[in-house]
Amino acid sequence: VLFQEGPFEVKVKKVTAVDDHQSFPSPAIALSSTEEIKTLIDQTIQSGGGLYDKGYQELCIALYRSILNTILSANDSGATSSIVSDRMKNIICSGLQRAETQIGSKANMAWTYRYTLDALLEEMGFT
Q1: Are 111 and 58 in contact (CB under 8 A)?
Q2: Which of 49, 67, 53 is nearest to 120 (CA)?
Q3: pLDDT digit string, tens, across residues 1-49
Q4: pLDDT digits over 34-45, tens only?
Q5: What are phi and psi of 57, to 5 degrees?
Q6: Whose CA is closest to 44, among 61, 29, 23?
Q7: Sign (positive/negative) of CA torsion 71, 74, 76, 77?
Q8: Considering its fold, how many domains does the chain have in total?
């Protein structure tokens, strides 16, 4: 029902309390070029920025964190050298760690992830 206009009904059939948050692994993808990573990041920023601007900071955070973890764990598709360099992995890990220290502020977390995505674009020479 997110972004759905007009009247609608939602019936909640079950609510379950959990002791701890659940986390699922990011999808494993194969990357063949830095241009492919750039496209992935650009699309993520466009979607995440829209969510953030509409007040859905938690969804923005989840989207940004997911793409960072996806890039971090990506497989190279037949490349002779790694598409995701060690420097890029360090940038991602630093951004993820910094954001985790900002749990009290959703805005700060979202912006830290965004700055991390921007740093990746810069590292690849796209800014």
Answers
A1: no
A2: 67
A3: 566 778 888 899 999 888 887 777 777 788 889 999 999 999 999 999 9
A4: 999 999 999 999
A5: -65, -40
A6: 61
A7: negative
A8: 1
